[in-house]
Description:
Strand content: 15-25%
Helix content: 40-55%
Radius of gyration: 42 Å
Number of helices: 17
Strand order of the largest sheet: 1-10-4-8-7
Distance between the termini: 71 Å
Shape: rod-shaped
CATH topology of the largest domain: Rhopdopsin 7-helix transmembrane proteins
Largest sheet: 5 strands, antiparallel
CATH class of the largest domain: Mainly Alpha
Number of domains: 3
CATH architecture of the largest domain: Up-down Bundle
Amino acid sequence: xxxxxxxxxxxxxxxxxxxxxxxxxxxxxxxxxxxxxxxxxxxxxxxxxxxxxxxxxxxxxxxxxxxxxxxxxxxxxxxxxxxxxxxxxxxxxxxxxxxxxxxxxxxxxxxxxxxxxxxxxxxxxxxxxxxxxxxxxxxxxxxxxxxxxxxxxxxxxxxxxxxxxxxxxxxxxxxxxxxxxxxxxxxxxxxxxxxxxxxxxxxxxxxxxxxxxxxxxxxxxxxxxxxxxxxxxxxxxxxxxxxxxxxxxxxxxxxxxxxxxxxxxxxxxxxxxxxxxxxxxxxxxxxxxxxxxxxxxxxxxxxxxxxxxxxxxxxxxxxxxxxxxxxxxxxxxxxxxxxxxxxxxxxxxxxxxxxxxxxxxxxxxxxxxxxxxxxxxxxxxxxxxxxxxxxxxxxxxxxxxxxxxxxxxxxxxxxxxxxxxxxxxxxxxxxxxxxxxxxxxxxxxxxxxxxxxxxxxxxxxxxxxxxxxxxxxxxxxxxxxxxxxxxxxxxxxxxxxxxxxxxxxxxxxxxxxxxxxxxxxxxxxxxxxxxxxxxxxxxxxxxxxxxxxxxxxxxxxxxxxx
Length: 562
């Protein structure tokens, strides 16, 4: 358990360090998704009747120091630093920025010769420009003059993160490489999810463990979330409004978080969850789902407020997670270390995403995609955890089956002699095919035996008789103690047991206190196809036993069933 907690802390620290380390300190290739040259920007509020040429000349009216987020929501002008590059046929340029909640976006490309090229889009138009990674990309028209600056007019900006976020100037080749990189990333994640979903659903149809269904639901929700957040939905449905895509994205993220809580509830043993814990999880799941539905329905009315409420509700997921981990620790769960290792990265990623959403942490490409990266790691580790969980459950099931087999065997045996009892004997005997021979053995004057050497001695005599019958009977024979001092032996007529041999062996066997013990045997031949045959065969053998007793005991008599 201690090792599991230590592993959880180590993984959490390592993953957090990967996400927050400065971009210039990362190894080459870490920022392949943020392609192109970043552009510094300045901002000013827009007013009715603003002219882009006049705005572009009035640089003193722009604020280049105050963070954009502090301006709140509304309509804005955002101008870039000088670009100083030319978009050519051999080296076309693109303007790239992250997709944000905006009602309308107009990009004015200002050229050094004074010309302006304008591209304007509403939310549906922005969807058509979405690239993988939820990047809005505008191709810069190819003119002979170099590009001086980029000027955006953003209308209806929620400004939760920024008005124009992470603007960059990139070549077409760089944009294509970025799309290929993101396609590989999302394809690998999607393939992993499909494999895990298929695997767990196949297992669930056979084993029916609840945590498998919960895990499959979580993976399916995560796939849908990745489909909307990646921008792939915009490629598939180009006529959908970009704000609608983002609303679906928020909703699916809460569904993913809710199903993750359901999985945690189903994964741990039942003794981990008391009544209050179960209620906390139910309330947390309901709150998450309601916040996602509420954002999807109400975000167009007040997107900034809806985002803030959503972020705080999403942060509250830490409460049930911490409660589950603490309860699993206190109740000594066998699966805490597995859960800790598998969920360290997603928990840290979720915390950092919440801090970013609340404006505490700055944006980064890897932080923005940390959900997919951490959940991919979680999916692999959780598959191992689920396999281990199934292995333990299989062991418990096998142990239970073995215990049940032992219990059934004990219920079928006479506790004194270890022979079959009457009920088990009949269950095995009735229905045997072919002619059968039934021997009924009854000890002579057994009451005198008990009176002479006591009941403990009498019990030892019964055990000695049982051992004798086992030694003389063939392997296919059934031997039972029918009750008291009466025994039964049933065997195939083709492999009969000689009653006189049994009697002779009993005479020669040393009994407790060297007491001489004899028995009488009645035998009968017949079939055992059904209960009627058994009654007929038993009556004949019992009659033969009575004849043996009447003839002086210590002898055998035979009869044929009617």
